[in-house]
Structure formats: structure tokens, C-alpha cells
Design goal:
This protein is mainly alpha-helical. Helix content is about 75%, strand content about 0%. Keywords: Hydrolase, Membrane, Metalloprotease, Protease, Transmembrane, Transmembrane helix. This is CPBP family intramembrane metalloprotease. One of its GO terms (biological process) is CAAX-box protein maturation.
Amino acid sequence: MTLPLRSLTPLIGFLLLLLAPSLAIAGGALSFQIRFEALLVVSLLCIAACVLGGYSFAELGLGAPRGARAWLICGALTCLLLAGVVVEAQFLSHSTPEPNWVAFAPFYVLVSSPCQEIVCRSIPKLIADRLQMSGRHYVLFSSAVFSLMHGAYGDPVLLANTFLAGVAWSTAYLFTRNVWPLTASHAAVGSFAFWIGLA
């Protein structure tokens, strides 16, 4: 199936907007120190575009999770991903300084993780649905978006890790269609990775 260029416009615009901070940081036009602020601006622009486009908060995955199934799926994924982080830590050592947890933790848990889940899980699903992508193609698209969003770090291992975590979380999103359990998983796994120095 060949899609006209006009139907690809939201996809192209989304990718350009999402990759702009990483490309700007790599090119020296934006400081690495403000990467979280750049994520927030990009996330707000993406969410605003979706709301102006007529999508509801429920379609963005922001409704209340239905039942315990979503939490159980994401709890199991969280355990698997945490185990992977522990195993990886045995083989790789990073000299990443530990963040200032008093300032970092609230922002990461309450702002960064939800924004990343909306931008990397629910918005790609809206685009995938519009382009009539299969579930498999959505998972690859979502995972690539999540990985490339971390390109500013310049770390190939982080790109691989975020791609693999993206596969797990986007697969879960296919079943849950809700970002809150994924946000909890993302916050737990990411915080643990920062704590042991892998992120």
C-alpha cells in the first residue's frame, strides 16, 4: 500500500519535532544541560497538536486504567526490565554521576516519564492507526522514536537499551491503551538505572 505524501505529513512533522532537540544538542546549538526542558517543550507541543487535532485525553492514553490487567502487565514488565538492568550493570560500568535526587526524582517521575510515554507510546499509536500500520510496525515505530529521542546522550548502549525497553512498553501499550501503568514502569526502571549509574 502506497500512501500519498500528504497522509505522511503528521508522521514527518512529529519525527522532525521529536528529533529537533537531539539534533540541536549534537550540533552544539542547544546545551545538553537543558535536555529535560527541551523534552517538556516538545511534549507539550505534541500534546497540544493532538488536542487541537480533535483527539481526546482518553485517545492519548490519559484515561483511568480499566481493571488490574494493565497494572499486572506493566508490573511484570518492570520486573523483567529491572532484572535486565541488574544483569547489564554486572558487565558495563558507567561513570555517570548520580543526580540530585531531591530535584530530579519529582521531575522524572511526575513530568518526564509521563511525557515520554505520551510522546513515545500514545502519539505514535495515533499516527500508526491513521496510517493503518500493523501492531508489529507500531511497536518498531514507537521503539525507534523512544530510542532516537535519547540520541542526545551519544551512547550506543543507551540507544539499544531504550529501543529494547521501547519494544516492551509499546507492546504493553497495545494491550493497555493507557499510559499510567507504563509511566509507573518507566519511572521505576529509569530511576533505578540512574541510581546505579547506567543512565
